[in-house]
Records
---
Amino acid sequence: MFWFSNDLRLKDHPLLVRAAQQCQHLLFIFIQSPQQIRGNRFVVSRMSAERRRFQWQTLQSLNTKLKNLDQTLHYAEGEPTAILDGLIEQLQPDAIYRARQVASEEQHPWQQLQSRFPNTTFISAAVQSIYQPDELPMSVEALPDTFSQFRRLIEQAAPSYDDAQVLAAPPSLPPPPTEIDQQGSQPALLPVDKWQARLGYSSTTDASEEPQLTSLPIKGGEDAAADFLRAYFQTSAASHYKETRNALDGEFTSTRFSPWLANGTLSPTQVLAALGKYQRLHGRNESTYWICFELLWREYFQLYAIKHGNKLFQLRGITNKPVTGCLYGERLARWINGTTPYPLVNASMNQLRATGLLSNRGRQIVASCLIHELQLDWRAGAYYFEQQLLDYDVASNWGNWQYIAGVGADPRQGRHFNLKKQQQMFDPEGDYIAKWHGDEGACGAVIDSVDAADWPVSVPVNK
Ligand SMILES: Cc1cc2nc3c(=O)[nH]c(=O)nc-3n(C[C@H](O)[C@H](O)[C@H](O)COP(=O)(O)OP(=O)(O)OC[C@H]3O[C@@H](n4cnc5c(N)ncnc54)[C@H](O)[C@@H]3O)c2cc1C
């Protein structure tokens, strides 16, 4: 049994190659846990319709690729443990394969199944990271408290990422187990094609529906990821990355690889291999190095999530530092709907709501505003990002939020961005604010309509 999660590709997938070599039959499954869609006390839902659409495009694309190898992707919605429990009882697989998961919610069913089925072999590998655990110069428990320390250790000791090698997709796959009815008679588990109609998605998606940050649409699937990667390195953008990466908008100011890296249609090794080829053709400079630098941040946060477990989601973070933060509904609604007094924040939130995409600088600015100006519980922001971001990645999202909230890996104990200064630096002409209507909803200097005693706050009228 091969359980796909955030590794939705066939290329550069060592675990898949291993399963293809070791098994006589393989059942491919993807399970959507309702817990990861349902709301909680912070958000009405943890997954927006736009994110689901992107995920669905990705699953369809994976299914098409599997079909070319006479295989099928099966999909189920439900508690992973319950679904797999039934399937393991029924099919008695010798082994179950799954990409390593870094956060507790995703790890939990795997651990439960391991203890329930001691005679089944559970095989997992880090297929979403640059380094395997044994290539790291430290154990996960000894991960340094700051990124800079981690980067220095990696750059001194770990194998160089200059000559990254991409593994080919398996040329063939073992057939599905005979017990699985291809027509999908299992109520919980159906081939992806059958689910498509049930969920109301069309088999082809109108390209104009896809969110765009560049002239290429952000479309789900391994082929779309490969096209995007190729298109990026056909430009000279990588040679200027360090100077442009902080821009709020614009064609290839940063790589925009994150949506595909997050769901595993693209591996970091594929990015590094394409970068290596680019450097051999056009030369290396500080900008090309900086792409690796940012990928190391991603790597760091993955290990950070494993090391810190549930602390990733706690108000006091990994520091246990006492912090305040309220869940004041009116302020949160203003932040979400782009009606704060800060046009730059509003523009960024409007962009995020409309597209599911936001630059790194935009994320830092709105996160800082939620924490420092609006004084809200940072987890409300993190959950809202989880709902909206097409590139949502549990480790990068929660790790970055903790960093800005001062309860994470930041040696400076948090970041408070001066919003006026940020606007002068990154949107001096106001183009971004105009494009995303940041002025339209701005509510003036007074954020709240009532004070602490619930009295209406009157706005002084200038005569
Ligand atoms: C509050 C907040 C929440 C975030 N949530 C997420 C998230 O859910 N998913 C996500 O992938 N990134 C997240 N990031 C990190 C970063 O903003 C995005 O990775 C980046 O904007 C993606 O655009 P890009 O692919 O053009 O990045 P580039 O600048 O081109 O960087 C290349 C790659 O490096 C990695 N990377 C870059 N910056 C970071 C970073 N700070 N932390 C971790 N990895 C990084 C990404 O995989 C990215 O695709 C968050 C940042 C902040 C401040």
---
Amino acid sequence: MTQLEEIAFAKVNLFLNVTGRDEQGYHLLESYFALLNCGDIIAIKESLALNCITENAEIREGNIALKAFEAIEAYVGTLKPVEILIKKKIPIAAGMGGGSSNAASTIRLVNTLYNLNLSMKEMADIAYNVGADVPFFIYNNSAFATGRGEKLLPLKLNISLPLLLVKPPVNVNTKEVYKLSVKSFTPNLEEISAKSAIEQIYYGKNDLTAPALIIAPPVSVTLDIVAKQTGCIVSRMSGSGSTCFGIFSDEEKAKQALYNLNRTYPKFWCHYQLLEL
Ligand SMILES: C[C@@](CO)(OP(=O)(O)O)[C@H](O)COP(=O)(O)OP(=O)(O)OC[C@H]1O[C@@H](n2ccc(N)nc2=O)[C@H](O)[C@@H]1O
Ligand SMILES: Nc1ncnc2c1ncn2[C@@H]1O[C@H](COP(=O)(O)OP(=O)(O)O)[C@@H](O)[C@H]1O
């Protein structure tokens, strides 16, 4: 029996401005979504009943991969059920889009498994009904995101960032963070371009940091720990947290920081990558 498998990559929000709210209460964003080189392994095959098995992590609420399958069925009509196997490597409730990426992989793999011939646009539309971040993982290209995060402009920045991701042992619920989110919004950027994205990456912010700190004070400590590492030039939170990241002046200093943090904070999840954008 055919089994298809892929890596469901994680993302980081290098900056995130909340610029308003739409009629449904969703927040409008301007953010640069960067695709990372780490991810979950997800496999799919035809089965007698719809089922999702998750290794390395307990998903207490309904698995979003199942929701993604149901969203395809809502679009194309009834399909033979599938079994989805996910080996979780992306930390959960961490602002790295793990669940959203699993959902997008499910849509892509089901499209291939059942020869549905859905276009990228169709898959992105299905993805949007599953979650605001899911369309990004259909395209899997680093991009400048607006709207709820689904309007994606792939922008090549021609920069390499020595990036260290650091997640403290605390999880953050996205919906709760948005509920506590800012009441005064950041004005829209004057232009959406590679130049403005680079400026925001080096000198910008993440507007979800303040609400995340109310829910998860260890995020503040983590931001300080990252900022104090030799060579760190930017220390910021990704998405709704709790993962923070540091951008370093060079690769060696970032790798040294990874070594230091792994030794000093064994309960933190850390990942180093030279991010080519
Ligand atoms: C904050 C971000 C930044 O990339 O990432 P994560 O921290 O989740 O990784 C995203 O906006 C998370 O998007 P996603 O996780 O897909 O959110 P959804 O499932 O669509 O929505 C969960 C809840 O968050 C709120 N929500 C989400 C997106 C948005 N632009 N405005 C919102 O207000 C809504 O209350 C919604 O009910
Ligand atoms: N396949 C999945 N992977 C991760 N989390 C999932 C999945 N399905 C449902 N969830 C639930 O979605 C919530 C957010 O998870 P996740 O996508 O990892 O975080 P974030 O939105 O911060 O990037 C968690 O509470 C988790 O229980």
